[in-house]
Amino acid sequence: MADTFLISLPEGISEDDMRDIKNVLKGIDSVEDAGSVSSRTGIDPQSIMLWVQLATGVLGVTSTGIVIAQKLKELFRKKRVSGARVKLPNGTEISLDESSADEIAKILEAAK
Question: I need a labelling partner for 55 at 20 to 30 A (CA). Which of 6, 29, 39, 89 fits?
Fold first, then answer.
């Protein structure tokens, strides 16, 4: 089974921006698939969320997590998206606006 995590996006993000984010994610070698979370799943209907499925065991590799976070941070900066958060399978949340690469590495290492 692959590792899956969620990305919570700020309200008001456009469909085009969501599609671009999914395309960037799908272009990362260790990402198997990505998609939108429907409000019918019981998750807060106000939230805009994406799910990201990684190859098995990849989430435990800190360097891979950093690469994914950096690509997302670059894309969010380019699209002027702020307030995005990553929620790991163990419940740990990472703010992509506030966390540096070193902080993300420490969080990922601790989440193993």
Answer: 39
What averages of pLDDT result for each successive group of 10 residues across the chain (112 residues)?
A: 80 86 88 78 61 76 78 86 87 86 79 68
Q: Report d(CA 82, CA 97) in Å as an integer.
A: 6
Residues 6+ apart with CB under 8 A from 55: 2, 3, 30, 31, 32
**Torsion angle defined by CA atoms of residues 71, 5, 106 and 29, in that order, rounded to the nearest 10 degrees:** -40
Burial of 13 (0-12, 13-18, 19+ CB in 10 A): middle
Q: How far apart are CA 89 and CA 77, in angstroms?
A: 25
Sheet holding 85-87, edge to edge: 31-36, 48-54, 3-9, 85-87, 93-95
> How many Å apart are CA 108 and CA 99, to the nearest integer?
12
> Can you give the pLDDT at residue 112?
66
Classify 89 as helix, strand or coil: coil
Place of tokens 């979370």: 37
